[in-house]
Amino acid sequence: MIKNESLATKLRTVFDASAHKRTVFEKEMRLKTERCKIMQEQRQFKSERAKMLSVDPDAVARPVAIGEEKHLSRDSFNVPPISADDEMYEEKEETSVDVIKDKAKEDVNPVCVNSNLKISSNVILVPHHSCFKRKNSQDKRGVERHALELLDFIKRFGIMRRRQALRERTKTTKAELRKRVRLN
């Protein structure tokens, strides 16, 4: 029973997809025929206009009269052909507000991330459970503990290397400042 239901749903989705393709194809064909009709009308008007201009030297002021005789508006002369981009635009579905907000967040996020990285560069996150571990507790009885010994998770961050690099930088900057003072 379940297998038949899943087969029926698959067939229904295939049928729906083919019907959608068919309607899209029919819509494209309708647009093409409309475009062809508009192009033919434009060609007719252009040919009539050319005939009028070639026969009468005063026919420069008459192009509007041609459209009025055929009961067409002035705008019908300037009907632009429908481009492929316009067709694609008509077929597109509107994007939801959530999608637009997500895209806007993606634009802003790198700036926030960079500032957060700068802020957190000098911070070491301490796990909440670290104080409950025996090796990290401060009140061990009978165990000698060095005062400046760092915890394991802090050592993994390489804070010692960072401290050394910072000390070296300060030494070099101080030395450079001394040289500048001596030279001046």
TrEMBL record:
GO terms for cellular component: U12-type spliceosomal complex. Residues 113-182 form the DUF382 domain. It comes from the Eukaryota. InterPro entries: DUF382, U2_snRNP_Complex_Component. PANTHER family: SPLICING FACTOR 3B, SPLICING FACTOR 3B SUBUNIT 2. This is DUF382 domain-containing protein. It comes from Trichonephila clavata (Joro spider).
